[in-house]
Structure formats: C-alpha cells, structure tokens
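User: Hey, my collaborator sent me this sequence without any context and asked if I could get a structure. I don't really work with proteins. Can you help?
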Amino acid sequence: MSKKWTNWAGNQSSHPQSWIRPQNIAEIVAAVKDAIAQGRRVKVIGSGHSFTGAAVAQDVLIEMTHMTRVLAGPDENGIVELEAGMTLSAVNEYLFQHDRALENLGDIAYQTIAGAISTGTHGTGENIGGLAQQVVGLTLVDGVGNTVEIDENNPLLHFVRVGVGAVGIIAHVKIRTVPKFALHVKEKPMPLSYVLENLEDLASRNDHFEFFWIPHTKWALTKRNNRTELPLQPLPRFKKWWQKSFMENTAFGLVCQLGKLFPGLVPRLATALPGSGSTSYIDESFRVFASERRVKFVEMEYAIPQEHCRAAVEDIERVIAEKNYKVSFPVEVRFTAPDNNVLSTAHARRSAYIAVHMFKGCDYLPYFSSVAEIMAKYSGRPHWGKMHFLTHEELSALYPRWNEFLVVRDQLDPTRTFHNGYLEQVFGK
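Assistant: No problem. I've predicted the 3D structure and written it out in structure-token form, which is a compact way to encode the shape of the chain:
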C-alpha cells in the first residue's frame, strides 16, 4: 500500500499513487505534464492545516517542503518574493531580521504561505484585509503545465489569490510587507452581554479586536491588540509559559479530555476557563498574532456581514442551551475589512468571522449542523479551509462574481488536472 497522508486534525487522509517533493518550478511543471500524460490528477499539500478535503490527493501528491526559499527582497517597496512552501513562521522570522512584518496574520503560523492565501486566512482587524490581500504577484503552474506570471496589474490576480487549489499550483508568492511594529496587548474577561452591546465600538476602536465566548458561561475572553511605539514589555518567561503553554494548551487539553469522557461535566468545567483579572504586555506583532496550538480539534468558520454578528452569536448561545450541546471549546469571533478577491469570504463586505470547534474525537455533526443553519440566515460564507456542508449550488448564490471565477478556472485548468472530491463539491465538475 502507498504511503498515507493525513492532515493535522486527522479528519482527512489519502493514499496517493505518487508522492513528489519538487525542488523548483521546473520539477512542478514536469510532474504536472507527466500526470496529464497518464490521465492522473494532482493535488498540492503544505502543512496540512486545512480541515476540508481541499488538498486530498488520490493520484499525484506534490509536497512543497523543499520549496522554502526567499527569492528576493524586501525591496524598496517592502515586497518579498517567496517560494510557496515557506511556512508563515519562517516568513515572520525572515522579515523580522530585515525590520519588516506582515500587516496581519491568522492565529497560527504553521501554514505555508500558499496554503494560507489559497484558503483565505484572515486574522482580525476591522480596517485590514486578510493575508491574500497583501499579495501583489503569483507564479502559477496551470492545469496544462504552463508557467503563468500574474502581477498586480493583471485582473487575474483577484481570482487566483484565493483559488482554493482549483486554478493552479502556486510556486512563488510576491507579498507586500510593512515596517515591523509592536502590539500593545490587553486580554481581559468581559461579560458576553457587554461585549455584544459594545461590539461596534470595540471593533472600531482597536486595531485588532477579537473575543472568545465560553459556552455554558456568560463570559467572553477579549483581546485588544493595538500598534504602539512604546518599548517592548513582553510577558515574563514563566508567566508566558503558564498562560500560553500550560493553561491554553496543557490544562485546556486536560479539560477537553475530561469533557470527552464525561460530557455532563463540560458546563461545570467551562466555568474554570474565564477566570478574572487581565493581562497586558507589548511584543513584536508576529509574536502576538500567532499562538501555540497543541490541542487538536475540528473547526467550522463562517464570515457574515458584521452588522449581524451580535444576532448570530446570540443564536448560537440559544441553540447550545436548547439542544443541550456540550461544547468545551470557545466560540471565536473576529473582524476584517472588505476586499476585492473574488472568492474571499470578505469579498465586498465588512465581515465578522464566527468559528466553532469540537475536540478531536467528539461528535461534532449535530452542533456544527445547527451553527450552519444559523449562518445561512445571515448569508454566511464558509471558510475554504474549514469544515462546512455547502455545495456549489448554495455557494454560487453567496459570491457575486462566482460565474466569472468558473470561467477563469476553465481557462487555467480546462481538463481538471487539480480536481478532487472537495473541489467537485464546491465548484461542480
């Protein structure tokens, strides 16, 4: 039997017929052309942090672990060119050495740069777009084995930045960076009712605001991160270990394990999470944005118009209570600006992102299905890298330029070299 591939969460796997680790674009082109000649399909994997089947390969799997170099920059405009297999954590460290940073990041940095932009990784910040919005150029290998250079003057860029692996293999990425900056972090538990009543103010008054509502409680953990010129004041080493490693991973993992074994304890265990008091510190942006995540889970996340955020969270609170779901993971809420990427979940609208999670091995289907029904009320667009149940018929109604994307897909992958089950679900044949 061929070698097995499994994603980080363990909910997606495959046994590809071929497993290729290219060193450069020429080897990607050769692999694609060889697959076409044999009538086989190709998928690319990065770090495996997508919960969907977007990267599942049954025929040819291309792994980008050897394409992790910085090719150029940062130049006078702050633009760097990277190979697509470089992880965000490696990008962050490289940029820091050159006094630069990415303007925004998601809450982990394990993903490859290509995987993160392809699935619409977004972070939080009411006036800032997602990671793909910072991309100014891509080098693709298309579905017939051609190398395609796309810069910011090419309208195709708006289609391929968030391409969900359907329009080509991203080989190189050009991304605009900013001068490095520090964030003043204020983390504080607040009553959920207060957060929801003051949501517009909290989101607009902070550069990066997010909150985590703890199901079975009336509390939310809030994070207010704002740019500052003040000197760095990072968390002391022990306090950082205690809060970020032990409490958020080791202790939380034990709580989840207990909740899995004894679901009836979950509401009582939840009361241990919010705590009291607050934390304040100042650190480099990339050290604040990305968190350590050792507790494994499955996740579903939707983007909805920001004005519906309060109602949607209240609906989730209500359905958990009414259906007696035992939920040990917080509900995460973030915000982004509108953008012009055709398949971005924030396309042309100011968005709130609501993410729900279940501990690995727990039955997520009833809870996720109920949340999906709520998100449908508010024209929710599911995150491309996270679990959902929508098909192309439903998705097409959520994106005003959907049919234009399908035309571009036909141009760049006319014979569906990059097709798989997930892409058939979301885009059709």
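In plain terms: The mean pLDDT is 94. You can pass these tokens on to your collaborator as they are.
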